[in-house]
Amino acid sequence: MREFKRTDRVGDQLQKELAVLIQREVKDPRLGMVTVSGVTVSRDLGYADVYVTLLGEDGPERIKENLQVLKQAAGFLRSQIARRIKLRHVPELRFHYDESVVRGQRLSSLIDEAVERDRSRHAGEEGGPGDEGERD
After folding, report:
1. Which of 20, 56, 74, 80 could form a disulfide with 93 if both were Cys (CB 3.0 to 4.6 A apart)?
2. Cα(38)–Cα(125) distance, integer angstroms
């Protein structure tokens, strides 16, 4: 069994190239700080689903606007990728907002809040019943 499938290697390469291209070459003032969080390539290499996140502003309207800008730039980005990566056929780019990062941050902050509440509660109970007592 091979370590990595070809689609994984192509996806990784596309992710690296797109990250640089979007940052340096797409000159649309509506485009925010976009991060390419992942690329999934179809088995036939016909499509590449590009997952992006936005730094800072991530309201529904801003997300929609940024995805629209990227969609309009897809042809240009594909032509630039064709010059940089040796592929017989450069996949068609489809952009999606990656909610997993935002969801992860939200979960992380909820966990932090719960841990802090728990610490506060235990600090108030120091020396009370149920306290483990001295620790070394």
Report:
1. 74
2. 46
Listed as own residue / partner, the contacts of 75-81 with beta carbons closer than 8 Å and 24 or more positions apart are 76/25, 76/26, 77/18, 77/21, 77/22, 77/25, 77/26, 80/17, 80/21, 80/25, 81/14, 81/17, 81/18, 81/21
Tokens for 56? 């800072």
In angstroms, rounded to a whole number, what is the distance separating the alpha carbons of residues 21 and 24?
Answer: 5
Q: Which CATH superfamily is domain 6-98 in?
A: K homology (KH) domain (3.30.300.20)
Instruction: Say whether 67 sits in a helix, a strand or coil.
Output: helix
Residue 35 φ then ψ, to 5° = -115, 130
Q: What is the pLDDT of residues 44-84, one digit of tens each?
A: 999 999 999 988 766 889 999 999 999 999 999 999 999 99
